[in-house]
Specification:
Rossmann fold; three-stranded parallel sheet; Ras-related protein Rab-2B
């Protein structure tokens, strides 16, 4: 999404309402565009200011399929995540590499916080609604996005 400064501010004011009651958020930047990485601090401040202190935030470096056009090193994303207490992954929306895993890892971290009692699952204001109970198999094979990661090669830095 391309936006001028005024458009970005308008978008940010709308998104602030979505933070309220959110249990998790994905903060995404484009590894081929340094300016998107440079705006992370501002977006993270917004998220933290307008959400619960327990909200899980996953930092995503997207477009890992464009390694040759990379403008932000993986180590920079990892360092930013470490410094701000975020979970970090690189993904490719184009190839689906790590996309499913990003959501699953965010959900796992939310679940861990539920088990620690940091979220009250009986209060939907926390952004969590309990659905029907199902058993979850942990012995599933590779997901479709993991298969796609292998398809683009191991030197992509994605998987």
């Amino acid at each position: 999404m391309l936006m001028g400064k005024a458009g970005q501010e308008s978008f940010r004011s709308i998104t602030r309402s979505y933070y309220r009651g959110a249990a998790g958020a994905l903060l995404v930047y484009d590894i081929t565009r340094r300016e998107t990485f440079n705006h992370l601090t501002s977006w993270l401040e917004d998220a933290r200011q307008h959400s619960s202190s327990n909200m899980v935030i996953m930092l995503i470096g997207n477009k890992s399929d464009l390694e040759s056009r990379r403008d932000v090193k993986r180590e920079e994303g990892e360092a930013f995540a470490r410094e701000h207490g975020l979970i970090f992954m690189e993904t490719s929306a184009k190839t689906a590499c790590n996309v499913e895993e990003a959501f699953i890892n965010t959900a796992k971290e939310i679940y861990r916080k539920i088990q620690q009692g940091l979220f009250d699952v009986h209060n939907e204001a926390n952004g969590i609604k309990i659905g029907p109970q199902q058993s979850i198999s942990t012995s599933l094979g590779p997901s479709a996005s993991q298969q796609n990661c292998r398809d683009i090669g191991s030197d992509s830095g994605c998987c």
